[in-house]
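Figure 2 data, in text form.
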Amino acid sequence: MAKIKEQNETMTNFGCSFKVDMINDQVQLQEKLAYWESLPFIAIDTEFVRVDTFYPIAGLIQVADDTGIYLIDPLDIDDLTVFKPLLVGNTIKVMHSMSEDIALFQTISNCMPQNIFDTQIACALLGQGISLSYQKFIELYLGLAIDKGETRSDWLKRPLSDSQLEYAAKDVHYLYQVYPQLVSQLEERNLSEVVQQECALINLGLTDTTADMDSYYLKLRGGWKLPILSQVILKKMASWREREARKRDKPRNRIISDKQLLEIVDRMPKSINALQASNILKPGQNRKYGEYLVSLINGTNKIPSDFKPVPRSLSGRKLDYYRTLKKVSESIAQEKEIAPELLGRKRLLEAYITVLFDKQHQQEPVQLPEEFGAWRIKLLSGPFEKIAESKLNA
């Protein structure tokens, strides 16, 4: 395999105006990792491919520090778990829109990164919108127009082009440059610690556990229309698919799509012939998975006492309550100049309403769940308790 460092002999810094070094071997990487662990912060970004696999495949890892930019070729590194001490250590890891990078590091280093500073979240706290793109982010803070043409290029092909390497180097370079500006703005508004709080909450949602695999069915919102026993079967099928996708390293839809799962459970074919006649699955899916899916249908006749049904869309009093909470959280967000969608995340408000109605007859006020995070609880608990007193006791 041609190594990226061979390109460096004929091209200086790949068109960048700053220093760019390539890292292609284990010893060199470990030396830099030891240095990065000693720093207060670094900027880090990744390029990967996740088209035909369940798990992302690393194509390039970029790090910016106080000495320059480093492009790490993961295809030339034997052991990527050496990133773990850095990822879980005290060094602040600056990222933009962290979720996909976190998923990659979970895959290659078998750890959940800690002490993340997501610049997208920082921008939302500064009133710049909930999902500011990297391109708009850099234009806003540095006044630069970035070409994102290489975003979807093939990062596993070797040699990588000079254009790809320039794009990757600039991405992490600009991220490093903007970080101090963001920290200064957040400190002026006493929000500097909130970014990492929110990143830690996002990490909890990204943690890949057995419980998460067994709860995927709750994301299939059309499932609430099914009878409860059918939902139990849906849970079993969705849990099986999660494990199958991981075992085969294939995207979920390459195993069986959400739509197919819901159709099977809706029709409940009790034989392989009935399943084939339904034309829900393709012939190859029938051969591989048909008998097992039918066995789940025929083998399920009880509803576990702790079974959690698929949540249905809010309606009636709950929907009215949601709209009231949303309006209040939007008002507080505007007053604090925070992106309203960040403060009053729909998922959090819906979860709170469910708990509230389940416990509406208890004497004590229902506390906001820990999933809200300390900073949201501080802003919302008082107003939300007043709304609960007026609406639930009306």
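Caption note: Residues 211-298 form a domain with the DNA polymerase; domain 1 fold (CATH 1.10.150.80).
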